[in-house]
Amino acid sequence: MAREKIILVACGTGIATSTVVATAIEEEMKNRGIPVSIRQCKATEVPGMVDDVDLVVSTTPVPQGLSKPVITTLAFLTGMGKADVLDRIEGYLRD
Amino acid sequence: MANPVLTYLDPAAVLLDLEAKSNGDVIRALGERLRQLGCVRESYVGAVLAREATLPTGLPLGGDNNIAVPHTDPEHVIRPALALGVLKAPVTFSNMENPDEKLPVRVVILMALNDKDRQIEMLQKIAETTQSPEALAALRRAKTFEDVCAAFA
User: Fold this and answer.
1) 3 state DSSP class of B124
2) B81 lies in a domain?
3) Helix pair B133-141, B145-152: axis angle to 10 deg
4) Per-residue pLDDT reduced to its tens digit, A41-79
5) Which of A18, A39, A44, B45 has most Cβ atoms within 10 angstroms of its Cβ?
6) Measured between beta carbons, which residues in chain B are less than 8 angstroms from residue A72?
7) In this predicted model, what pLDDT tens digit does every residue of B56-114 receive, in sequence order?
8) Does the ipTM exceed 0.95?
9) Number of structural domains chain A divides into
10) Burial profile B135-152: b = 16 or more Cβ within 10 angstroms, e = fewer
């Protein structure tokens, strides 16, 4: 079985929007048969937490030059483009 | 089961037909209600305003549907609560994803959160509402607290 992938989910305070995003990703990736572990943080904390994660998903801009792929999206709050974002997340995790 | 939004929304924290000149006016008016209800500390409004200036909370939902969800760190919160403002005329909030973009906003949900694991159902219900143009239109039309409850149902 594939190693569980780790997704770092960030937002401004690490409490509100990232919770919505984390829950949505966890549920949908489970539906797609991809085991994921989610960590949450503030956008400003991302550089210090990025080393041992596979992907960063943020609702707000994060510092540039991170060593891991970053998806910045409001799709889990607006509903717009959600399927497309989930496909992109899956694409990063399938590698 | 109780509606997870209405559990946290006191009628005294709902301001309909609110007149405001700026997003700061809205945050101060709603934050003052939460303070009077004993939900937040004195430091809360200032912390929300500071956060909004650097990490804005406007959500671009298209045209009239744009909303904003200001909030801040848990240490300013005594017990979790929501406040809702529906504005007569829009004020400007910046886009959460792209702070250079300004959004006209008529519906503001001020959130006082202190434990994301316990408030997750409420957050999900709000996200569900923001993804429903019908619910947002119902909030903008709301004249009474009962109308607000129906919009979140």
Assistant:
1) helix
2) yes
3) 180
4) 999 999 999 999 999 999 999 999 999 999 999 999 999
5) A18
6) 97
7) 999 999 989 999 999 999 999 999 999 999 999 999 999 999 999 999 999 999 999 99
8) no
9) 1
10) bbebbeebeebeebbebb
Determine whether B118 is exposed, middle or buried from the number of CB atoms within 10 Å of its CB (0-12, 13-18, 19+): exposed
Q: Let me know how long chain B is.
A: 153
Cβ of B97 under 8 Å from any chain A Cβ? yes
For residues B48 and B50, give the distance between their C-alpha atoms in angstroms, rounded to a whole number.
5
What is the value of pTM for the model shown? 0.94
Least CB–CB distance from A77: residue in B74, B111, B130: B130
CATH code, domain carrying B122: 3.40.930.10
Annotated active-site residue in A9, A11, A75, A93: A11
Nearest-neighbour CA in chain A from B17: distance (Å): 24
Q: Which residue in chain A is spatially nearest to B95 when comparing CA positions? A: A60
Residue A13: its chain B contacts at CB < 8 A? 51, 55, 71-73
Q: Which two tokens stand for residue B134?
A: 């019908």
Chain A residues lying within 8 Å of B60, measured CB to CB? 74, 78
> Which domain CATH number covers A35?
3.40.50.2300
Residue B29 lies in a domain: yes
| Block residue for tokens 């406040």 | B83
